[in-house]
Design brief:
This protein is an alpha/beta fold and 361 residues long. Helix content is 39%, strand content 16%. The strands form 3 sheets. The chain has an 8-stranded parallel β-barrel, surrounded by 5 helices. A 3-stranded antiparallel beta sheet has the order 5-6-11, with no helix packed on it. Strands 1-2 form a two-stranded antiparallel ribbon.
Length: 361
Amino acid sequence: MYQRIRSQLFRLDPETAHQLTLQLMRLGSIEPVNTLLRLLYWTPSKPVQAFGLTFKNPVGLAAGYDKDAVAIKGLSALGFGHVEVGTVTPRPQPGNPKPRIFRLVEDEAVINRMGFPSYGSEYVQMQLNPLLKMGWFERNFGIQPRGQKKKVMQVHKGDSILGINIGKNKETPNEEAVLDYLELLQNFAPYADYLAINISSPNTVGLRQLQGREALYGLLTQLHAQRILEEKRLEKKIPLLVKLAPDLTESELDDAIDVILSTHMDGVIATNTTLSRNGLTSTHRGETGGLSGSPLRVRSEAALCQIVKRVDGQIPIVSAGGIMSPEDAKKRLALGASLVQVYTGLIYEGPGLVRQIVKSI
């Protein structure tokens, strides 16, 4: 069935198709649509323990699809063990000019140069806490909410683990980037099951420089110190994961892992999109931006193998990039990943891919 739907979606501009499917998933938060989705995409339970959390299965949605946390419950109904929203930035920003997403159908790939389009931290917090949304209306329109208890009330997110992927604003210089990440950590510590620190997108100028040993150590040291304060304040654990690029050299990757371990981070997400264009045949191969999909498979697997060896079981690893089939996911788990994430695979194979993967492992 999805192949027929895909043929219609692929007639649309990629970003238009993305927004259409996202709005449909937003409707999936409403009953009885949510129950129907759960019946259609029922997925067996295969629990995994990682970062002190229990995931109902090892398959998650990678960041980038639901950037502003508008469709968490609907996405959870598709059977994901975790849903990672974002990348969220402190202040709203439009991202890069359009067009900025390109399908490479011949290569089963996508190139994007979105550049962290985000409604900003305040908007995303309102999606996660309806009382904040009421307060926004009160401040801006003088509406007085009645009969509401003053307490944190999170949006019902189904039974999936919620990850929030955070990144700096485009105009924030790297020397001040830590301030953006600290603000986001404080803002989302009450809501996230884990936070993913995005320093590896190729679409924000200079961002990947934060993966260097010295810059990364300074950033993660301060985030860990703030995390300890937030854990005491909230009386909950706040796992911090670091998302790395697939384009690091072996020595750069070793340096990054050394820093991640020494600063007490809880996990690694490997990998983000790549700048490589090796072996592409599509007419869009010359577009700038990050490449995802099948051509990323080999690079992501190589990074995973190196990280598994270097980490030596000290922290869990989430593998992402080029997972297009159940066989791809099974291989990543066999190589040592605790969890996997998909995104581009859903574009080409449809939401049924989640259940196919879980049933195969």
